[in-house]
């Protein structure tokens, strides 16, 4: 019937699923097996053949993108036959509706502290509370951890008394959580997770309201059920009872939100909770070539906590899976640009990565090569990363030695022997002389300190004139910032490799710029480019996305990049005999599997072999795939150096904004020595012209720029 009327040729397994009407059923499916396709066909079957009113069917899924995708696909196929509104929603949206209905009846006004422009933002509130409790600044990485921990607690319905059973890795998490909850309660504020907990509480305590919803939705369908959390399952269970016309579609192998409280174990208990449940399997993959299906299928079998499924396809063989070994991240970028510049398949191409940071140098390179791209699921955390802020502060000071705010950020992160008291003193002073001059003349300094400060002043002066790439290396080595990084990572238990990964992205951007100003402008313009592109809808572009955000999507060609240990999985040196680690590895393996199974025809797995001059191991998942496909498909790509890359030719040179202040270390009051005029003191500086009072000659006006170029003027 469906084939004749709607031109969909469902297979036997799919047909059984689509024709299922009453009672609980669980559909366990593999990627690309038509989960969404069958769900929308079943919806149409209920409406057209069983005359169920569309307003009585509730279809929920995890993400807004999936809900919109379901709705679009439903109306594309069945829009000509069904013109009433069919409700496809996220579970959060449904919960919010429940909360709002309750609030209206009881005259309560809740304000949401997430999403678009809330009057008070969850992150701001948490940063404040963290500061109050730990007397420390909450950086972006820790904030992410705190957000995940709170989300995990709410979604997993963990009671406060049981917090001690979990390792939240946030100092005084219990107190932060309590303060956060109390503040929200007092001010009628809710975050996205509260929508769920509150909706559940409302339904549990208001029989009337619960009955209204039960009556409204006698048919409930859940897509992506592997991502459904405990609290979400509890809401659905309440709404479905006692008819239990519940239709759940899931792929436990694609469960990748454990860190936020996804509870795929519920699928294993489904038939215990819902008596008489049917279980269907969809195992035929319609999306990918035979190689991709067969290798992905072997790959995921290594996981132990899963429903046994066997993915197969009737699709043809296509290209083999490309394992691409490159020297380093620069060569990885070269490889991608080379591949993309010689093809026209932008639309059906995706570059996927584990970690958002991977996108930065790619965005830089794609934009410089005029390749069309779009970005999905990108958070701007790179630009707020402490290491980025530190390095920009170093450069700020080099360009403007009066900038005490930047100096305050970095003075203890280098070899300076500078006291906090000295910094506090300078902050009180007028900006008439440079930070270094103040420091050098700070009372009671020991000789070695003064000598050191003079050296530092010269170092920063030299820094301003270096090529950006050299400047970053100079900060790292000569100013000993690397030493600080190592000890800071040890102290805060950050992975040094991950921190260096951020540094390397900056070095790569730096390598393509010619001056410090140009480099700093490029960082700024990248931020703007990303913000602009995120807003645009580009259908004919290469998609850059985290694997998490790529779920549910499909592309002809997929490049999975940065497949190295410490990036994928993010935790390295792990022992998979430990039970907790084994769970962690299984979730990471599922994520890798989601990435692989987005590809229809071509799949490229790219792994750099050196980072920061040191050998890095490929991801253990690359090794597992290598075992299956053998070495014959490994391509080794080596480029001379990034600057010599063929595709580097098309790099744009930037319109260099006129440097309004020529960078120099001098300021009013500086003691100087001129190779010809001898010692003197700078009386005033106006633009490039300094009035210098020389001991032997009196006042002379000199161009600082000329003095610097001719190397005739130095600080004393
Ligand atoms: N019976 C069928 N005949 C032909 N193509 C099909 C059939 N069923 C599904 N497809 C196609 O297979 C592809 C995958 O379908 P769909 O997106 O519904 O799968 P999915 O199981 O939801 O995928 P995933 O979980 O990996 O995101 C789509 O391009 C869809 O049109």
Automatic annotation (TrEMBL):
Kindly list the GO molecular function terms attached to this UniProt entry: 3'-5' DNA helicase activity; ATP binding; ATP hydrolysis activity; DNA binding
Enzyme class, first EC level, given as a word:
isomerase
Q: Does the keyword ATP-binding apply?
A: yes
Give the GO terms filed under biological process for this record.
Answer: recombinational repair
Q: Which residues form the UvrD-like helicase ATP-binding domain?
A: 8-289
CDD domains, alphabetized: DEXQc_UvrD
Q: Which InterPro entries match?
A: DExx_box_DNA_helicase_dom_sf, DNA_helicase_UvrD-like_C, DNA_helicase_UvrD/REP, P-loop_NTPase, UvrD-like_ATP-bd
Q: Which reaction does it catalyse?
A: ATP + H2O = ADP + phosphate + H(+); Couples ATP hydrolysis with the unwinding of duplex DNA by translocating in the 3'-5' direction
Record's keyword terms, sorted: ATP-binding, DNA-binding, Helicase, Hydrolase, Isomerase, Nucleotide-binding
Q: Where does it sit, as one GO cellular component term?
A: cytosol
Give one Pfam hit by family name: UvrD-helicase
Q: Which domain of life is it from?
A: Bacteria
The EC number on file is 5.6.2.4
Q: Where is the UvrD-like helicase C-terminal domain?
A: 290-552
Protein residues bound to ATP: 29-36
Q: Which family does it belong to?
A: Belongs to the helicase family. UvrD subfamily.
Identification of the protein by name: DNA 3'-5' helicase
Origin species, per record, is Crassaminicella thermophila
């Amino acid at each position: 019937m469906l084939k004749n009327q709607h031109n969909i040729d469902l297979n036997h397994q799919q047909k059984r699923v689509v024709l299922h009407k009453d009672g609980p059923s669980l559909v366990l499916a593999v990627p690309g097996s038509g989960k969404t396709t069958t769900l929308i066909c079943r919806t149409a079957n209920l409406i057209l053949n069983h005359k169920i009113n569309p307003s009585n069917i509730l279809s929920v899924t995890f993400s807004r993108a999936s809900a919109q995708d379901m709705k679009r696909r439903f109306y594309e196929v069945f829009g000509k036959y069904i013109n009433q509104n069919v409700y496809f929603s996220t579970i959060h949206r449904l919960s919010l509706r429940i909360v709002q209905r309750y609030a209206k009846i009881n005259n309560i006004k809740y304000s949401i502290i997430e999403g678009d422009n809330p009057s008070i933002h969850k992150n701001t509130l948490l940063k404040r509370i963290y500061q109050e409790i730990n007397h420390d600044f909450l950086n972006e990485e820790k904030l992410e951890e705190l957000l995940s921990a709170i989300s995990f607690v709410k979604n997993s319905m963990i009671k406060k008394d049981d917090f001690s059973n979990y390792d939240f890795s946030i100092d005084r998490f219990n107190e932060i959580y309590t303060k956060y909850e109390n503040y929200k309660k007092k001010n009628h504020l809710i975050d996205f997770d509260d929508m769920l907990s509150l909706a559940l509480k409302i339904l549990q305590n208001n029989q009337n309201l619960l009955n209204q919803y039960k009556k409204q939705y006698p048919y409930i369908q859940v897509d992506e059920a592997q991502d459904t959390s405990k609290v979400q399952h509890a809401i659905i269970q309440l709404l479905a009872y006692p008819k239990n016309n519940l239709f759940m579609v899931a792929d436990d192998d694609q469960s990748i939100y454990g860190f936020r409280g996804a509870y795929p174990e519920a699928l294993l208990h489904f038939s215990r909770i819902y008596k008489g449940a049917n279980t269907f399997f969809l195992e035929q993959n319609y999306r990918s070539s035979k190689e991709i299906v067969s290798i992905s299928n072997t790959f995921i079998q290594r996981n132990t906590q899963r429903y046994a499924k066997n993915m197969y396809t009737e699709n043809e063989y296509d290209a083999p899976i490309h394992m691409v070994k490159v020297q380093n991240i620069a060569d990885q970028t070269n490889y991608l640009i080379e591949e993309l510049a010689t093809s026209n398949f932008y639309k059906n191409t995706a570059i996927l990565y584990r970690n958002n940071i991977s996108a930065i140098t790619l965005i830089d390179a794609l934009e410089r090569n005029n390749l069309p791209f779009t970005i999905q699921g990108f958070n701007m955390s790179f630009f707020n990363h402490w290491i980025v802020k530190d390095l920009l502060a170093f450069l700020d000071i080099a360009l403007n030695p009066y900038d005490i705010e930047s100096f305050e950020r970095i003075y203890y992160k280098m070899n300076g022997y500078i006291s906090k008291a000295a910094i506090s003193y300078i902050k009180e002073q007028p900006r008439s002389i440079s930070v270094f001059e103040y420091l050098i003349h700070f009372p009671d300094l020991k000789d070695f300190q003064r000598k050191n400060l003079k050296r530092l002043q010269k170092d920063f002066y030299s820094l301003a004139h270096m090529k950006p790439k050299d400047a970053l290396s100079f900060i790292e080595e000569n100013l000993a910032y690397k030493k600080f990084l190592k000890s800071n990572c040890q102290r805060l238990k950050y992975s040094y490799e991950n921190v260096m990964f951020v540094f390397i992205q900056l070095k790569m951007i730096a390598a393509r710029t010619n001056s410090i100003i140009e480099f700093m402008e490029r960082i700024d313009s990248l931020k703007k480019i990303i913000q602009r592109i995120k807003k645009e809808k580009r259908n004919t572009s290469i998609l850059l996305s985290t694997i998490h955000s790529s779920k549910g999507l499909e592309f002809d060609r997929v490049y999975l990049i940065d497949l190295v240990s410490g990036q994928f999985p993010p935790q390295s040196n792990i022992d998979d005999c430990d039970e907790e680690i084994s769970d962690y590895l299984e979730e990471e393996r599922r994520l890798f599997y989601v990435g692989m199974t987005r590809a229809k025809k071509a799949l490229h797995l790219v792994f750099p072999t050196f980072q920061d001059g040191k050998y890095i191991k490929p991801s253990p998942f690359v090794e597992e795939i290598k075992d299956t496909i053998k070495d014959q498909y490994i391509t080794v790509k080596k480029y001379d150096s990034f600057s010599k890359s063929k595709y580097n030719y098309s790099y744009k040179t930037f319109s260099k904004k006129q440097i309004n202040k020529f960078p120099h270390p001098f300021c009013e009051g500086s003691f100087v020595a001129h190779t010809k005029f001898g010692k003197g003191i700078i009386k005033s500086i106006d633009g490039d012209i300094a009035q210098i009072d020389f001991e032997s000659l009196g006042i002379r006006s000199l161009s600082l720029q000329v003095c610097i170029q001719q190397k005739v003027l130095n600080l004393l």
